[in-house]
Fold this sequence. Notes:
globular; three-stranded antiparallel sheet; single chain; alpha+beta
Amino acid sequence: MRFGVGKNMAMSIRFWATACGVIEDNGGYSPTRLGNLLFNSNDGLDEFCERTATTWLVHWQVASTHEKTTTWWFLFNHITQQVFDRDFIVSSLTSLVTEHKLRISIATLKRDVECCIRSYVPRLGGDSPEEMSEPLLGELGLIQQNAKSAFDFRRGSKRSLPDGVFAFALLDYWERMPHAGSVMAFDRVAYDYGSPGRVFKLDENAVADRLMALEDLTRGQIQWIEQAGIRQVTRRGLALNNLGDYKYKLLESAYA
């Protein structure tokens, strides 16, 4: 009633806010640390979700993990072809569903794939204002439509991606790695499933540039090293159990 929406829309808001990591269920829904940092009405970094940094952060939240948004995860981490169409994504997901013996109908998969793609690409020739307006993630330019049913990824440097959001994503990814040490190979950052390079569709040069920029941003606590053909990132004086606090500090720099 406070939002002026019906029950189904309220459930949708709850789902997407949870998937984006801004609310959580602790016996009742409440803002997470990220939610308070971004949207607190007193001192939130982006109370009305107007900054591009927030849009990149939303993309990271839905595409870097598979718990709630498997289609987003699958599209940005497992589809390696430059050009793809809906049928190819649905077919690939169907194989995944069969492999894991899940009970999901083809119609449900098709709707999810359509929802995912339309999060990034507006419907061409749409009649309603909703179909004609640009979706939230459309401004990132990660996917573009080439023909009636063909899409392709746009890889590159992503100039609108703030270093603070990249740093947050890197440390978030580092936290999720089992047995994570203080050194990470460049190839993992650039190509591993759920890595910043893969999720943000950055090419090798762009990932290297981002990593080199982190040394100044972190005052040497994250360093890029290239010796004898070996490229890697190191954490200096930054323990694994401190990454959670530090990644939020770095995220704030994206809104300075």
